[in-house]
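Action item from last week, closing it out:
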Amino acid sequence: MPLLPDKRFLCSLLTGPALALAADAVSVTGAEAPFFEDLPTVLSASRLPQPLNEAPGAITILDREFIQATGYRDVARLLRLVPGMQIGQERGHSQWVTYHGLGGDFPSEIQVLIDGRSVYAPNSAGGVDWSALPLTVPEIERIEIVRGTNSNAYGANAFLGVINIITSHSHQEHSASGQLNIGTQGIADAQVSWTGGGNGAGVRLTAARTQDTGFSGLNDSRLSQTLSLRSDYRIDARDELTLRAGYNHIHRGAGYPDSLFNNNGERTAASENSALHLTWRRTLSQDEEWLVSLYRNHESSIEHWLASAPGFAGVPVNRSRRSDRSNAEIQHRFALNDQARLVWGLEGRHDETSSPFLFARGKPPTFNLYRVFSNLDWHLAPNWQLNLGGLLEKSGDKAAQFVPRAFINWQSTPSSTLRAGYARAWQQRNQFDIYGDVRVYAPGSDPATSKPIAWPYVPNPDLRTPSVDTLELGYLGRFPSIDATVDVRLFHERISHFVIRRSIPSPGGPLALPALASSQFDNLSAPVVLRGVEYQFRTRPRPGTEVLLSHTVIDRHTNEPDVAARTAPYSASLTWLQDYGGGWKSAASILRMGSLSGGYGYVPGCAYMSADYTSFDLRLARAFRLDGRKVEMALNGINLGGRHQELADRSQQCLPQHVDKPVNPASPMVWMSLAVEL
């Protein structure tokens, strides 16, 4: 089979029936062995452990070997290689991560988990701060990406998908290691890790320091310090406790020197992110297990500067904020009989957020959430499998909402599975969308008696909750002669009450700075529809060679051109991993991304789209032993092949002095890494 599909193959994918063309390339007969036997077991689709071909939906797995082979310094960089993921960087430490685009300044359409703990921020900004995760890349055992709506398993923020980052068990190996990275753009990283223990207890402790100057020509420095702990204690044959703790502190440059009225002025922002997560697992048999999970997340940031405008100097702007989340969950899975398994659970959550400048009317109300969920996996016949799921969720002052999912899988041959399904989901809006109230006052004035000179954000307590109805067809095929799998997803996603930011008349009448228009988050009256096809082809055609091809085409339907522009019409990536023997390995990736307009910027109403681009990443590594210890040296490069813009701050890009000239092109970054077994 050719690594790049021909026109006949692509046309067949777009018309639907025709994954059979992939089967035409390799002859597979029913008399051959069941080739799905060596497919991995996944956990994230339904909360039930399932072979990949039995999961209700399309799932991409990035395993430990693949992650290490890329040499990437950031988790978000790995996700660029996943079908349907649309990712951009406004600057080196700012990651815009979406599935099928659509995201605002801080995308919140996908649920992100670390060992089952949600890292979605409850604070005013929402989304996920990918540069401040209390986690290091070498800790990751694998990443499971559920490509499609999965709210029936993980709640409202699994609106379009789930990213579950699973760390290595501390019993897995006892060792110590260190790594250094030195390179261009000020790259100077250091990391040490120790894993040990005994008498049923395992401990892994990791400390890391990440530093660089980011994109050239921007205030884009980053200094991040991370401390991570995982401990697993085997109480007896049935019971195990796992403690996960993490802390990250980061300083990073932000803003531009010539933003309008210095509303996005240059500054250094500092933030910290910590988490404590305890789980108890009781395994009664292979088919029955109880799981209890408790965690607490804390996030805080300090970010302030002075704006200026004609007639006003030293206007204070303060985006400092703080949030805390406490969460408890219980889950029980068991077999109903030889053909059916069930999982059910309860979850409760309490969120608090505080940011006086972003909420002028006072601290937003605390947020409480309650969920009950269940998933049924039922083998109707030897080749037919039904997955049914449902979740009832009560969040804040909104009415309780029920989200269902139904999938049916048919193993048409020993090496082919077809799937079809429907799912519904609701999206939990962050506090700022609803209660955000930003008023800017002249220096020295009393907010209680003075009129603001600008009112950029106005609250909207009547904001409706968006919902999505998803229909999908899929195919998973295994071709043993070239050790290959093909996974295809055809999707139709209809989003109602989609939330956008609109310019509105100022509630206080004409203001002193009319160029900083008032805005409010509002619902679209007409639905947004995304439909298209995405596929992933993975093969090991010969020993030491692995190729991964991903491709997505999306047709966008909406009466708002700005919303359509926030989804790229296509994306593609091709990755080649090669083991040459003698310790030599290489990794090469090429990414092609369609034109994309993400977020809003500080000043609403500016239409700007970053152009299509192509980017290359390369790595060459040599592993050897020195005095009996494993050593690996590698040369790594990302953003190669010329500078390109991935994502713009639209309000900055639309200033007259920047028209038709990208203000933040991505910079090539090259570094040497040295990893040593201590």
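Closing note: The chain has eight helices and 37 strands.
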